[in-house]
Amino acid sequence: MHGRLKVKTSEEQAEAKRLEREQKLKLYQSATQAVFQKRQAGELDESVLELTSQILGANPDFATLWNCRREVFQQLETQKSPEELAALVKAELGFLESCLRVNPKSYGTWHHRCWLLGRLPEPNWARELELCARFLEVDERNFHCWDYRRFVAAQAAVPPAEELAFTDSLITRNFSNYSSWHYRSCLLPQLHPQPDSGPQGRLPEDVLLKELELVQNAFFTDPNDQSAWFYHRWLLGRADPQDAVHCLHVSRDEACLTVSFSRPLLVGASTETLLLMVDESPLIVEWRTPDGRNRPSHVWLCDLPTASLNDQLPQHTFRVIWTAGDAQKECVLLKGHQEGWCRDSATDEQLFRCELSVEKSTVLQSELESCKELQELEPENKWCLLTIILLMRALDPLLYEKETLQYFQTLKAVDPMRAAYLDDLRSKFLLENSVLKMEYAEVRVLHLAHKDLTVLCHLEQLLLVTHLDLSHNRLRALPPALAALRCLEVLQANDNAIESLDGITNLPRLQELLLCNNRLQQPAALQSLASCPRLVLLNLQGNPLCQEGNILEHLAELLPSVSSILT
Predict the structure, then answer these.
(1) Alpha-carbon distances of 392 from 292, 365, 388, rounded to whole Å
(2) Rounded mean pLDDT of 264-275?
(3) d(CA 72, CA 50)
(4) Using the 8-state DSSP alphabet, how is residue 355 labeled?
(5) Is the distance from CB of 312 to CB of 506 less than 8 angstroms?
(6) Is 494 helix (H, G, I), strand (E, B) or coil?
(7) Are 61 and 103 in contact (CB under 8 A)?
(8) In sequence order, what DSSP letters do the residues of 29-85 get, joined into one string?
(9) Of 479, 487, 489, whose CA–CA distance to 528 is shortest?
């Protein structure tokens, strides 16, 4: 055994590492204490830079020490010559690069580099772009580096076309680069701005078709990578809808005007003002939301004075002007009529999807067929299944409705952890289809029974509905947005799992409410119904609260205006 190196046992190795860690900790703590003492004493000199560099070189995430270094540089700016400062900054940039090699995702290091370059009279932005390229070669998804690159590109006024070419090079090297795809979605609208498309504007058709071809190559190369699928979903998306007044409704009985908009707004805010003209004269009114909450809403209403509803005149004209949205709508209330309205057609304005040209429709149809072929090869690829659904929605939601539902079933089986999300998305699409069908039929009755709905959305589109059937679904609540249905007279919601009635509030025309076989536990859950003045029939059969003793007496006291309560 003589002459051979003694191998330490595992216990000896552990003890040696412990002693080494303790020694490093002592040095770390003593250096930190020295920095804080100097800072407290106002001794912000180069010795603080030396002390903090010892700590930050090993742990770049000590944010307080970066603050100390900035304070030192601010102090030295008043004491050093420009040449001396330039040398310090050059050394600092080198130190920062060494810190980034220790931790390329250090918030403090990237932020300090931004701060430092912001104080230089002539930063070398080209060098910074090269730095970003080097670090992105190591980790192409380092979002800290991507943020820094966007900062540098903005400061250096790098043309978007050059940055787009940079993303091309990274995507060509590796399709699985979410950050590059995302950056493209930011750059392309800058390169190809479209008038009246809003901040989320989409692309000219020729550019869009090229991008669709590029991303299709990506997800066919690696079907299991999500990056390209997400980008494809962005390409299929719509631009922000133009600001518009969708519907205007006037009720003589309620002496009320209700208006719905293309997006939620907060009336009364500095940028959101509504002007009401009655018979071409301005009328000052107080606007409120249907549920009485002062928050952004698609639907707003106001009370009308009796004079504006005088039935002696042949008609009254009401016009709402949305100043911020540069939009308006007008409706007429005729003599002898109890209500009047004017609304956009959901079918005319492509409410839930973009209008497709022949060329784009052909490309999307081809993509749909290609995705179906890919799905046959990759039957459990959830991204492919979801994209098939979205392509069908983009092409023709009503034509593909039945097939879409079948793909939802397959997708839920493939991705059971997201079953709840998929159920909600399916419910959203079904409700959109129902709104379109209702528009085609020009009726005010909407049947949504037996559709397995889990959520209600787009309720602002149902402003004129008088009869709504939600029976035999999986709804757990009737949401506050339901208060927008100002014309609703009959609501059927039997055989759900409803526990809350927050949305049944201030419905002026509601007469019948059917809630059989739900999960209403306490009479207090019905308190909001007292705000519905015309409610006369309430059916609660099959709810747990019906098991309580004296429930009818309790409900009669809670809802004295309801003449018929079935339990």
Answers:
(1) 39, 9, 6
(2) 83
(3) 11
(4) P
(5) no
(6) coil
(7) yes
(8) HHHHHHHHHHHHTT--SHHHHHHHHHHHTT-TT-HHHHHHHHHHHHHHTTTS-HHHH
(9) 479
Residue type, 13: Q
Taking 70 as the threshold, does the pLDDT of residue 20 lie above it?
Answer: no
Q: Which token pair is 284?
A: 């000052």
Instruction: Give CA–CA dist 159/144, Å, rounded.
Output: 21
User: Residue type for 418, please?
Assistant: R
261 vs 325: CA distance, rounded Å:
10
What SS3 state is found at 94?
helix
Report whether 229 contacts 481 (CB < 8 A): no
**Angle between helical axes of 82-102 and 63-76 (0-180°, round to 10):** 170
Parallel, antiparallel or unpaired: strands 339-343 and 245-251? antiparallel
All residues at 6 or more sequence positions from 66 whose CB lies less than 8 Å from its CB, including other chains = 56, 108, 109, 111, 112
Which residue in this structure is represented by tokens 């609501």?
491
Contact criterion met (CB below 8 Å) for 151 and 144: no
Q: Give the strand pairing for 245-251 and 256-265.
A: antiparallel
Q: Kindly state the percentage of the chain with pLDDT values over 70.
A: 92
Neighbours of 118 (CB within 10 A): 10
Which residue, among 470, 228, 250, 211, has the nearest Cα to 342 in the 3D structure? 250
pLDDT at 199 over 60: no
Q: What whole-number distance in Å separates Cα of residue 531 and Cα of residue 525?
A: 13
Cα 446 to Cα 469: distance, rounded to the nearest angstrom: 6
Nearest Cα to Cα of residue 543 among 522, 564, 563: 522
Q: Are strands 327-334 and 315-322 parallel, antiparallel or unpaired?
A: antiparallel
Q: How far apart are CA 218 and CA 352, in angstroms?
A: 28
* Least confident window among 372-376, 448-452, 548-552: 548-552
> pLDDT grade, residue 205 (50/70/90)?
confident
Phi, psi of 178 (to 5 degrees): -55, -40
Number of residues written out for the chain: 567
Question: What is the pTM assigned to this prediction?
Answer: 0.81
Tens digit of each residue's pLDDT (9 = 90 or more) over 57-68: 888 998 989 999
Nearest Cα to Cα of residue 56 among 114, 97, 117, 18:
97
User: How many beta carbons lie within 10 A of that of residue 156, not counting itself?
Assistant: 15
Q: Is the dihedral of CA 245, 246, 251, 254 positive or negative?
A: negative
Q: What is the 8-class DSSP label of residue 313?
A: S
- Please tell me the distance from the alpha carbon of residue 22 to that of residue 56, in angstroms, as a whole number: 18
Contact indicator for 567, 541 with CB cutoff of 8 Å: yes
Separation CA 180–CA 169 (nearest Å): 9
Residue 99 phi/psi, 5-degree rounding, is -65, -40
Instruction: Give the C-alpha separation, 277 to 456, whole Å.
Output: 33
| Enclosing H/E stretch for 525 | none
Give the residue with greater pLDDT, 310 vs 510: 510
What are the residues whose beta carbons fall under 8 Å from the beta carbon of 341, sequence distance 6 or more?
247, 248, 249, 250, 331, 464
pLDDT at residue 55 in the model: 86
| CA atoms in the 13 A half-sphere facing the CB of 87 | 5
Segment (H or E) for 563: none
